[in-house]
Every structure is written in C-alpha cells, then in structure tokens.
Specification:
This protein has helices spanning 24-29, 38-59, 64-74, 77-82, 101-110, 114-140, 143-154, 157-162, 169-190, 193-210, 218-228, 233-260, 278-285, 316-322, 326-339, 348-369, 382-401, 409-425, 435-456, 459-482, 624-636, 649-659, 678-686, 701-705, 711-723, and strands spanning 62-63, 523-524, 546-550, 571-573, 612-613, 644-646, 663-665, 692-695, 725-726, 738-741. With 745 residues, the protein is mainly α. The strands form 4 sheets. The protein has a 3-stranded mixed β-sheet with strand order 2-3-4, with no helix packed on it. It has a 3-stranded antiparallel β-sheet with strand order 8-10-9, with helices on one face. InterPro entries: LipidA_mod_glycosyltrf_83, RgtA/B/C-like, YkcA/B-like_C.
Length: 745
C-alpha cells in the first residue's frame, strides 16, 4: 500500500502573550502612575536637600550642651530613657529629650564624633522632603504640585539652615509633624481610623521633641476630620475621640513613666523650678512662661522685629528666614477655597486647603502671642507654605491658561510676592544687592507675558510667563537658602541658632553688644533680638560694649542660650527675674572674643566656654589646660563616682561632650534648680562619691549666668570655699577656675 504524504492542516493554538520582563530599577524610576519626569525630579530634589543639609551639618559648630546630653544618653539605656545630661545620670536637661534619641543612637553605634551627631539631622531633613512630596501628590493628585512643594520646602532659608544643624529640636519636630500630616491627609480622604491613629502617634513623637508646640495641629486636624471625613457624623465623632486618645497616650507616656519612677532611681528633672516634677518642666517652664510677657510697644515690621512682638513674623528677622512666600501662600489659599466652593463636604482637595490654612494660622498665632528666642522655631511653617505655594502656582496657572477669571490671581500673586520680597531684601542692602532689581525685572516681564498670552493665546508666551514668574518668586529665598554654603561669612548660623543669610548668629546669641535682651520675655539694652525690640536681634556687630539684661519667665533663665559658640562678650549686669530665674548670659557662650562679662574663658569651654565643637571633626574643643585638669583628676579620682563637680550644666558640657567625663552639674542648666541640696552635696562628700569641686574664678554659677548665685547652689559654693582645700598643682591652671578637694572625714 502506497503511503501518501498529507499536509497537517491543524491550526496550532495561539501561544499566550509572553509577559513583559519586570525590571525593578526601571519600574521604580518610572512608575506607571506618574509622569516619567516625576521620580527622577524627586531624586534630584532629594539629592539637593541632602547636599545642603549635610554641608551645613558638617560645617556648623556642634552645640556642646546637647552633644553632652546625647553622649551621656548613649552610655546606658537608663540614661537614654530618662534623658540624663551627665554620665552618672544625676540630672536631665530642661526640656523633653526625644529629639536627641537619634543622635544618642548614632553615638552608641559609631562612637562620639561631630559627624555622628550631625548625620541624623540631615537624614530627618531628607525624609521630610520625600514625605512632603507624597503628601502633596496624594492631596492634589498632581506630580507637578508635589515636586514643586518639595523644591520650595528645600529652598526655604530656615529649612536649609535648621536641617544643616545638629542638636536642634525643630528638625525632628518638623519631620514628625510632616509624617503626622501625611497620615492625617489619608485619613481625611478615606475615613481610615488606622491612618488617623497613626497621625496621632506621630504627633506624640513630635511632642517628645518639642513638647506642647506639637499639639498646635491637633484642634485643626480634629475639626477638619469632623467636617470632611466621608462618614456619618457619629462615626466621625468616635474617630476624632479615638484620635485624641492616641495622641494623648503617645505624647504623655514618657512623662508618666518618668514621674512614676521613684526620684532616687532617676535623674533630677531640670527646669522643674526645684519641684523635680516633669509636668512642671513641660507645662510651666517650657509652655506657660513663654506667654507671660508680651510687648505692647514694639513693631514687628521694623528691622529685626522682636521675639516678644505680636508682629514678629512680619519683621525682617523672622520673615527673611520663612516669610518670602507669605503673599503667594495666602493668595493660593483663597484661590483654592474659592475653587473648591462647589465641591462636596468630603472633597479631599478642599480638606487639604482647610488643613494647611488652619495649621498655619494657629501656629502663626501661637508664635505671635509667645516669645520666640530662636529663628529655627519657624521651620514648622515651611511645609504648609511650600504646599500652598506649589498648589497655588499650578492651580492658578491652569485657571489662567483656561481663561477663568480666577486665573488673574496668578499675576496678582507674582506681583505681591515680588514686592514683598523686595521689601524684605532692602532691609539689608549689603547682601545680594543685585538680586532685588533682577527679581523685579523677572516679575515685570512675567506679568507682561501673561497679559500678552490673554491677547494672542500663544502657548510659548504662556510658558515663558509662568517660568519667569516662578523664578521671580523663588529666586530670593533660594539665594538665601544656598548662602548656607558660604561658611566663611557665617551664613549658616551658630551652634545654637539656625539662620541663613546675613542674620545668621543674630538670633539668641548671648554676649553681643549688651547681650541678648532678657531671654524669654525679658528686656534689655540691646533691642531687636528675640526678647527685645527695635534693631537687629542680638545687638550690633561691634561685639563690644556694656548692657544689662532682665526678665525671665517662670523659672526660665534670661539672657542667651546653651551652647552658644559665636557670641562675644560685653559687660553684663545682673537684673531681675521672675520665679528666681537668674539673668545674664547662658552657659556655653564663646570665649573667643573677650570683654568684661564676668565669665572666665575656661580655656576652650566650661563656664562661658567653647560651646561649639569643631565642625566635621571629632568634636574636641578642650583646651590644653582642660586636658591637663582631666588627667590630674583621673589620676586622683580613686573610687569616687564623680570626677568632679561644677556649678552648672554649662560648666560641665565641654568635659562631658568631649571626654565623657562623669561631672556633677550642680544646679543644672540654670545653675539654681535646687539639686543637689547642700545636705545632699555633703552626703556625696561623706560617702566618698565626690572629692573634687571646680569653681570659676568669678563665682561659679553666678559667673555663667550673669548673677551672683542663689539658693542651694550659692550655699554649696560657700560651703566648698569654707570647708574644702584649694588644690595647688601645676596641672591645674587658673584659666579653668579654682579646684577644691573635699575630705570625706
């Protein structure tokens, strides 16, 4: 049988399409739900932020007061939990210490270095930029708004300066509040209780960093959720109450743990007005006292508007750091609320405008009513101003492009913002004097191009108009922010104060002409600084002269602030203060410039000493005399618990920060916190736990604080002089003070 070939006519089944290869790096860089430029743009902004923040952090002197606390906290988990200022765990700092937890962990992991203290602050800044991008994108649904928000935030002068510092509470506070806002925005949009609870948790973490200031957002979040969340009213009320409960627990748990711990088993609470009660420290010393002395005679519109002035946020001192986009943000808020007028109750965009407007408004009101001793307080305003500004630029541009009447708010916003920036710029005619005319030219050209577009409808004309307009509004704050790279002119602030541009070091610097005016609510001969009135804060640039300081609130000392590294000294007289607070300069002011302040130089630190460690280095600022003193004391310490005692935390900070020395800071931060009492001090001597006491040549606590000593500290100082023997040794230089040895017999 013949075999014939047949053709197979079966149609093969079609093969399933081969799945596209998953390329993680490419899919992450160009996510499908965002424009191709969005993620690369975000990475570029984050890289710029990392560069600005790390440069500042590694080129600004370390605040030795907080560096000492971070080092002590890194030495044991008990010190970490209770915020012990000294290695032996005798006393805390005068505020909650959660902002130092990242630094203490970094020191524990990497050892004590200036870069280990600075790195966490820069990381907090980059996290803030990334989360703000996510927040703004979820709020508006637009990547251009989100990217512009992140960019405006990064190029805000006070943001560049603050995240470029180590040892400031406002870095962690701002990051935690951005995280809280991000979680709240999702909760308000979707009605998710879990997200609302997460927002409360982050507010609680913010409370650990800056105490009551973290709560400014709570009433606004609660009201916005009650108004806008997509749930029936009763459910919204239940969710809001749960949010409040989570916030309270997350905020107060540490205080409850500390207060319930027997006093003998934890450090003494500094800033508690001698009560050893952490609630007094938080709610009296660090809160109500800030609102106890408001000035009714100053004008915030003047150059350097004072720290107790209701108009301080409009004065050149603070507005130059945060306020360049005030007009843009305000007009953007009005535009957004009008635009969302017809939206439903649960509209997410409308809820966002209410949230940003409310939080900015209540925070600005609190700042206006209280005393603001440092410019870095302004950092928490930056996320809201950046988000509103970005949303306004994009939203008003689209409205103008589409021919809407509201679109005319765009050229109005450009004109108002440029005029405001020009006004602030001309408050200081020596810094970037070429910039105001350029900004005016850019703004005018932008407005003319926008008007021309309405006549001819040429797309390129519109594009040029919005680019020039945005550049005109952003150029000045960006230039101030980038000035922090110029460390030779001091444009990145001091160890205790973050500020960009020529106002760096003028906020809260003790010891300028006449000293800083009074501290919280105080008054003094130097006008203009926070706590003063009139001229540039902190006094003139001559760095000489004499003055007086008075005031102080609720036990808060008046004068400068801990860890100051740039103030030069003047002749300071003691004044009056409320609740026994001493007046004068705070511990840690620099000894690099001399006068007759009454505080000895103590070599590189100690009372009135170095305050700021070498940027980017190991952090050591101990002088040869201080090193010799430590060598002598270690050789003679024996079994004593403490290497030696001094009359305030300011005397101890350099020795603790740079050598990890176990120093007893009698009187704590203010020098008069009541711990230890004279009886307790004698007991330490009798038990052999303390042998040596170092007194400054002009009177211990009184020298550092500008007063003459008071309470138990003064009694201890007198007892030491009467009952202990002055050490005569070539290893003990008179430049560090007088060393006494006390016998336990």
């Amino acid at each position: 049988m013949a075999i014939t070939a047949t053709q197979d006519t079966t149609v093969p089944a079609s093969e399933p399409p081969r799945p596209s290869r998953f390329r993680p790096s490419r899919d992450w860089l160009f996510p499908a739900d965002q424009p191709r430029w969005a993620r690369p743009g975000l990475l570029a902004v984050a890289a710029l932020a990392a560069l600005i923040f790390t440069w500042g952090a590694f080129h600004t002197a370390t605040n030795n007061f907080y560096a000492a606390d971070a080092r002590s906290m890194s030495m044991s988990w008990k010190n970490f939990l209770y915020g012990a200022f000294d290695p032996a765990g005798s006393v805390t700092i005068d505020k909650l210490w959660g902002f130092l937890w990242p630094q203490a962990l970094a020191v524990k992991i990497f050892g004590y270095h200036a870069w280990a203290l600075a790195l966490p602050e820069a990381i907090e800044g980059v996290i803030s930029v990334l989360v703000l991008y996510r927040l703004a994108r979820r709020w508006t649904g637009r990547s251009d708004v989100a990217l512009l928000s992140a960019g405006l935030f990064t190029l805000t002068p006070i943001v560049a300066a603050t995240f470029g510092h180590s040892g400031l509470e406002d870095n962690a506070l701002t990051m935690c509040l951005i995280l809280a806002t991000d979680a709240f925005q999702r909760a308000a949009n979707e009605g998710r209780l879990r997200s609302l609870a997460l927002s409360g948790f982050w507010i609680g973490m913010a409370f650990q960093t800056k105490m009551v200031q973290a709560w400014t957002v709570v009433p606004i979040f609660g009201l916005v959720y009650l108004i806008c969340a997509p749930h029936p009213l009763l459910k919204r009320i239940r969710h809001t109450l749960a949010f409040g409960a989570v916030t309270a627990v997350a905020s107060l748990w540490l205080m409850v743990v500390v207060q319930l711990t027997p006093a003998a088993d934890r450090p003494f609470i500094d800033g508690s007005n001698g009560s050893n009660n952490i609630f007094t420290m938080v709610f009296d010393y660090n809160f109500t006292s800030r609102f106890g002395s408001l000035s009714s005679t100053t004008s915030g519109g003047s150059f350097g508007g004072g720290g107790s002035d209701w108009g301080k946020l409009l004065g050149a001192s603070f507005a130059s750091q945060i306020g360049w986009l005030y007009p843009l943000a305000l007009i953007a808020l009005v535009f957004g609320l009008i635009k969302a007028r017809g939206a439903g109750r649960a509209d997410g965009v409308r809820a966002g405008y209410l949230m940003w407007g409310g939080t900015l408004g209540i925070t600005a009101l609190a700042f206006s009513a209280g005393t603001i001793p440092h410019s870095q307080y302004m950092t928490v305003l930056a996320p809201g101003l950046a988000a509103l500004g970005a949303a306004g630029i994009v939203g008003m541009f689209r409205a103008f492009r589409d021919g809407e009447k509201l679109g005319w708010l765009l050229p109005a916003a450009i004109a108002a913002t440029v005029l405001w920036a020009t006004r602030l710029s001309y408050e200081n005619t020596v810094f970037l004097s070429w910039l105001p005319p350029l900004v005016i030219a850019l703004g005018l050209a932008s407005i003319l191009l926008l008007i021309a577009y309405r006549v001819r409808r040429i797309g390129k004309v519109l594009a040029a108009g919005i680019v020039l307009g945005t550049a005109a509004m952003v150029a000045t704050p960006a230039a101030w922010a980038l000035s922090t790279f110029d460390t030779s002119d001091g444009y990145n602030g001091t160890s205790i104060n973050a500020a960009a541009g020529p106002y760096s070091g003028q906020f809260g610097s003790a010891g300028r002409t006449g000293g800083m005016s009074g501290g919280p609510g105080g008054s003094g001969s130097t006008s203009g600084g926070p706590g003063g009135t009139g001229q540039m804060p902190g006094g003139s640039s001559s760095d000489t002269g004499s003055g007086s300081s008075s005031g102080g609130l609720g036990g808060a000392p008046s004068g400068g602030f801990p860890g100051s590294s740039s103030g030069s000294s003047g002749s300071t007289s003691s004044g009056s203060s409320n609740s026994g607070a001493p007046s004068g300069g705070f511990p840690g002011s620099s000894s690099s410039e001399s006068g007759s302040s009454g505080a000895p130089s103590m070599g590189g630190g100690g009372m009135g000493g170095g305050g700021g460690s070498t940027p980017g280095g190991s952090g050591s600022t101990l002088s040869t005399a201080q090193e010799q003193l430590l060598t002598y004391l270690k050789a003679h310490q024996g079994s004593a618990k403490y290497l030696f005692a001094v009359m305030s935390s300011g005397d101890a900070e350099d020795y603790i920060a740079n050598a990890g020395a176990s120093v007893l800071p009698v009187g704590g931060f203010s020098g008069n916190n009541g711990y230890p009492s004279l009886a307790q001090f004698k007991e330490l001597i009798a038990k052999g736990e303390l042998k040596y006491v170092l007194l400054s040549s002009s009177g211990g606590m009184g020298a550092g604080m500008g007063g003459s000593g008071s309470g138990s500290t003064s009694a201890i100082e007198s007892w030491v002089k009467a009952n202990c023997k002055a050490v005569s040794s070539s290893s003990v230089s008179s430049s560090v003070g007088t060393l006494y040895v006390c016998s336990s017999s």
